[in-house]
Each structure stands twice: as structure tokens, then as C-alpha cells.
Design goal:
Layout (H helix, E strand, L loop, with lengths): L32 E10 L6 E11 L4 E5 L6 H9 L6 E6 L2 E2 L4 H5 L2 E4 L12 H10 L9 H10 L15 H14 L4 E5 L7 H18 L2 E5 L3 H7 L2 E6 L2 E7 H6 L5 E6 L4 H10 L2 E7 L2 E6 L3 H13 L6 E5 L3 H13 L1
Parallel strand pairs: 3-8, 3-9, 6-7, 7-8
Antiparallel strand pairs: 1-2, 1-4, 4-5, 9-10, 11-13, 11-14, 12-13
Helix pairs in contact: 3-5
Bound molecules: adenosine-5'-triphosphate (ATP).
GO molecular function, one term: ATP binding
Family: Belongs to the ABC transporter superfamily.
Keywords: ATP-binding, Nucleotide-binding, Transport
């Protein structure tokens, strides 16, 4: 790993093993990342803030896991604790089965990260030089993976800027260089904190596509934190949702989306006149009304039980329905609902 500048020294256990002490081999079956009982408190006394409390999760090799949560939920503290940049008070972190406190050098050998949309790229070096530099850190001959670099430059639309110093680039371009530098290395466990922050829509889509391709091609393990649910839904197999320092959900995106009943229904009819709509409003939570020609489409927030009440009401008013659609949950709705439930 190459982002060691801010790392606090782990002092909790024996420290790095000497070269003379052979470390136990990783059996290959352990998860890429295993976090167990992580706890971190900042400050002490009445000012103390427990940023992370009893956080446990694991990430299988080759999977992409999203770490979500509202502001202050503890995502960054969790990521920094995993990376050894923050020394946790309790808990263990294993990368490929290797304890990061016992053997940091070995554990972090194949880890790289882009934190808060940035990374320690060398601004005086050109884009291409940065890619070469960061890929040498793991002991790789950059010439042997030059094709990978060229492809990254091409796919992330950095080819025209490849020989310019990073400092001369726009913020969005610098961000793409950060991501390219992470992906240029041989790291197979990658942490991305807000990788698409501030990127335009097209760059964000390109970046996601390239990330998905690289994950599949290199069996990369990725933990990505983002407030952009489209990004998470697009690239993640699973999400870990945090709130107030704790994990409140840990499931596949598919299960989370299907774990909820319908969010609402849209009904379309030529019989939905002003009076019927006003009565509907009295009885149901109407979230949207759209008139087009002689037809009206009304969206009602209700679950499947409420749907029967809705159709019974419309029948009692002699409304003939032209169309009924379900309003499904997206990840943002699920996230907001789960966080709300926790706070109730
Ligand atoms: N160095 C620090 N000193 C004191 N408190 C801190 C420190 N770092 C984080 N905290 C506090 O710990 C809690 C969790 O913060 P953290 O940055 O991990 O949350 P987050 O989920 O990453 O939030 P965001 O989405 O806003 O980045 C917050 O209350 C924050 O104020």
C-alpha cells in the first residue's frame, strides 16, 4: 500500500514479525477482508465520540462491497482503521487472512486506496509517470504491465493528457488519475472512498464501466464508499450499511431491494377526475399526479395491502383502470428507510 503518510503506528500487539519468523501461510480460503469487533473512540471524557462500535463484516475475494451510511456514520473511520491509518481501540482486521497488526507489511502488500476522492499522486510527475511509479511499489516491472497502463489511460480518457504533469489538470482529471494509479498497481484489495465525487455524468459512467471490467478481469476485491446510490447500485454486489458507528444491514443489493414490499403504485385512468382525486388524497398518500390528454396518472405510496384498499376504493367510484404499475424501491429508498427505522 502506498498511502502511509498519515498512518498511526499500531502499538496494540507484537508489531511486525521479523524476516526470521516465518508468517503462517494464507490458506487461500480466507476472505479478502475480515473485520471483527472494530471499535474506535475519539477523545475522552464527556467530549468522547464513539465513531465505530462493534463493527464486523467480511468481503469475499473478487467481490465489490459498498459501505454506506449518513454523514458521521463511521465509514471513513472504519476504512482508515482497516488501512491502519487510524488505530482502533478494539477488534481485528485480516487481509487475506493476515492480521494487519501482527504483520502490517505483509497484510498491506496488495492493498491500495483512494480516500476522499483523492490519492497521493505526484503532481510534478506526468500522468503516465504516476502510473508507472505506483505500479513499481509492489515490486512489479512497469514495462511488464505497460499495456494495462495504456488501456487505463485510454479507457479513462486520459490518453491526451498522459504526458502532462498532474498539477496542470482539472480537479476531475486529477481524480481520474488517482483512480488510474490505484488500478495501475498490482493491488488486489482496493478501497475507494467517493471515487466519483465531482465527476461529470459521462466520466462517472466510464469509470464505473472500467472498474467493473477490471474487477472481473483481475478478480479484484473492492470496498467502495459513496453517497451516490446509483454508483453503489451499479457496481456493488453487496452493501454494508452503517449508522451511528454500527452496522445496521449487510446484504446483497438484490436482497435489499427485494426485501421490501412495493413502495407504491401508479394507476392510470380517464375516470380520475378532480373529485375522485380529491377523495383519493383524503384516504391515501398521493405522491404524484400527472395529467396527459384525458388521462390522469396518480402515484400512491402504499404497500400491497394498501393496494387492495386502493383498487376497492377506485371500483366503488366506477373508475376503470387503464394501467397499474408498481413503484419499486431503489437503493436510496432502502437506505433512507433502514436508517430511519434505526432512529425511531
Ligand atoms: N479525528 C477525529 N477526531 C474526533 N472525532 C472524529 C475524528 N474522525 C471522525 N470523528 C467523528 O467520528 C464520527 C464518525 O466519523 P466518520 O468520518 O468516520 O463518518 P463517515 O461515515 O465517514 O461520515 P461522512 O459521510 O460525513 O464522511 C463522527 O461523529 C466524526 O465527527
Amino acid at each position: 500500500m502506498t498511502i502511509q503518510e498519515n498512518r498511526e503506528r499500531p502499538e496494540r500487539s507484537g508489531g511486525e514479525q521479523s524476516a526470521a519468523e516465518p508468517s503462517p501461510p494464507d490458506a487461500g480460503g480466507s476472505p479478502a477482508i475480515a473485520v471483527e469487533g472494530l471499535r474506535k473512540q475519539f477523545g475522552s471524557g464527556p467530549e468522547a465520540v464513539t465513531a465505530v462500535e462493534d463493527v464486523s463484516f467480511s468481503v469475499e475475494r473478487g467481490s465489490v462491497v459498498g459501505l454506506l451510511g449518513p454523514n458521521g456514520a463511521g465509514k471513513t473511520t472504519t476504512i482508515k482503521s482497516i488501512l491502519g491509518m487510524v488505530l482502533s481501540d478494539e477488534g481485528s482486521v485480516r487481509i487475506h487472512g493476515i492480521d494487519v497488526y501482527d504483520e502490517p507489511r505483509r497484510a498491506y502488500a496488495h492493498v491500495d486506496a483512494m480516500l476522499e476522492g483523492a490519492r497521493n499522486d505526484y503532481w510534478r510527475l506526468t500522468v503516465r509517470e504516476n502510473l508507472r511509479y505506483f505500479s513499481t511499489i509492489g515490486g512489479v516491472d512497469p514495462d511488464s504491465i505497460a499495456d494495462r497502463h495504456e488501456r487505463l489511460l485510454d479507457k479513462l480518457d486520459l490518453a491526451d493528457a498522459a504526458d502532462q504533469p498532474v498539477r496542470s489538470l482539472s480537479r476531475g482529471m486529477k481524480q481520474k488519475v488517482s483512480l488510474a494509479s490505484v488500478l495501475a498497481s498490482e493491488a488486489d484489495v482496493v478501497f475507494l472512498d467517493e471515487p466519483t465525487l465531482g465527476l461529470d455524468v459521462e466520466s462517472s459512467l466510464t469509470l464505473r464501466r472500467e472498474l467493473r471490467r477490471i474487477v472481473a478481469e483481475r478478480n479484484l476485491t473492492v470496498v467502495v464508499s459513496s453517497h451516490d446510490m446509483d454508483v453503489i447500485e451499479d457496481i456493488c454486489d453487496r452493501v454494508v450499511i452503517m449508522n451511528e458507528g454500527r452496522v445496521i444491514a449487510d446484504d446483497s443489493v438484490e436482497n435489499l431491494l427485494h426485501g421490501f414490499d412495493a413502495r407504491g403504485y401508479r394507476v392510470t385512468s380517464a375516470d380520475l377526475d378532480e373529485t375522485v382525486v380529491a377523495d383519493l388524497r383524503d384516504r391515501f398518500e398521493v405522491t404524484e399526479i400527472e395529467r396527459s390528454g384525458d388521462r390522469t396518472r396518480v402515484e400512491v405510496a402504499t404497500d400491497s395491502d394498501g393496494f387492495y384498499a386502493l383498487t376497492a376504493f377506485l371500483r366503488s367510484r366506477d373508475v376503470t383502470l387503464d394501467a397499474v404499475e408498481t413503484v419499486d424501491w431503489d437503493l436510496e429508498d432502502v437506505f433512507v428507510e433502514l436508517t430511519r427505522r434505526e432512529e425511531r
